[in-house]
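Fold these two proteins, one after the other.
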Amino acid sequence: MTDLATQPGVIPYVDNHDGPRRLLTIDISLHHHAKVFAPLASIDGRQYVVSWGSVTFEIPADRNVHVSVYLQTNYSGNSSVATPFASIVLAPYPGPVRLATQFTNAEGTLLPVG
């Protein structure tokens, strides 16, 4: 485990990677249908059930990292509900990065903050 992963609230990078690492914080804004959705984040294909608000991950700093966020629903009403999602590939970079979600219906974006 690296020093970054020992910080309170940081989800460690669990796949095999011996290179440098950095912090990624994702701000997952409360969706207008929050009662029927639960947010999930994915780092390089590994999924994490997370909560609304900010969540911090340790990620590789020396290679591309695929990040996605989607909103899972168990809605079983009469009408169909789209599952909103957003995805981005982060390029190598030595410093921390912060992203914010923005969802509109079934489409979403992950935008850099700061």
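Now the second one:
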Amino acid sequence: MSDTTDYIKFVADRTVAYLSLPAEERRQRRHRRREPWIVRWFGLLLPLGIRIWWSGRKKNEKPAAPGQ
């Protein structure tokens, strides 16, 4: 039961805090671009490394057959 009341208090606090902001700041928060999900999950280096590796591949190269 306390989990539900704690959650309701949390949501109410967040809502009151948001509504107490000036209208211009609320508008800016809504229109702010979020960073891509891969950057949020893995930081900057891993996605950059994958992008460099992926773009450096040869387009027509086929993987070598097993045993060769």
